[in-house]
Specification:
By secondary structure, the chain is of the alpha/beta class. It has two domains: 30-98 and 142-188, Beta-carbonic Anhydrase, Chain A; 105-138, no CATH class. It is built from seven helices and five strands, in the order αβαβαβααααββ. Strand 4 and strand 5 (178-182) form a beta hairpin. The chain is globular, with a radius of gyration of 19 Å. 26% of the residues are buried.
Length: 188
């Protein structure tokens, strides 16, 4: 049985037994916040519990490293949708210790791509097309600085209302302990 077959089989039982009923909520976050965090598997259940969040309390956006790498990319668009359409009044960026993006080198990833069949001509074409593949794939050196950078990108975005606090935190993926990097209620 494939992983997809296993998921679909489970889903039929889930729906038949109406297990979805315990998760019913609205599309609006109860705590009026949007969180950008990492896609790390250790945070799947740990992060909401460490932040005292239940189903429906927050909009959660996940990507590699909890990074805002472009001011007009899908991450920033999602944050703006949460603020303007879904009643979020605060933004929280939550990075974590021992992140896979820490120290990630683009050249190592590009070599892995080639080993999996991506032709070097494609990578060269992207570079020729003014897509800096190496910069795009590069990780960060320091999680604290990465969180700071993402907070600043969000906070300084010309389309984000100035009254929306943007917080920055780091979570320990082993214990759930939070370290405050930026308190969005205070001016820096």
């Amino acid at each position: 049985m494939t992983l997809l077959d296993e998921i679909l089989q489970h889903n039929k039982k889930f729906v038949r037994e109406k297990k979805y009923e315990q998760f019913k909520t609205t599309k609006y976050p109860n705590k009026k916040m949007v969180i950008l965090t990492c896609m790390d598997t250790r945070l799947m259940e740990l992060l909401p519990r460490a932040l005292n969040l239940g189903n429906g309390d927050a909009k959660i956006i996940k990507n590699a490293g909890a990074m805002v790498s472009h001011p007009y990319g899908s991450i920033m668009r999602s944050i703006l949708v949460a603020v303007y359409q879904l009643q979020a009044n605060e933004v929280m960026v939550v990075g974590h210790h021992d992140c896979g993006m820490a120290g990630m080198k683009a050249d190592v990833m590009i070599e892995q791509m080639k080993k999996r069949g991506i032709n070097e001509d494609i990578i060269e074409f992207l570079d020729y097309s003014r897509i800096d593949v190496c910069n795009w794939l590069e990780g960060f050196r320091c999680v604290r600085e990465s969180v700071r950078h993402s907070v600043e990108m969000i906070k300084k975005h010309p389309l984000l209302p100035k009254d929306v606090p943007v917080h920055g935190l780091i979570i320990d993926p082993e214990t759930g302990k939070l370290d405050l990097v930026i308190n969005g209620y205070e001016d820096e």
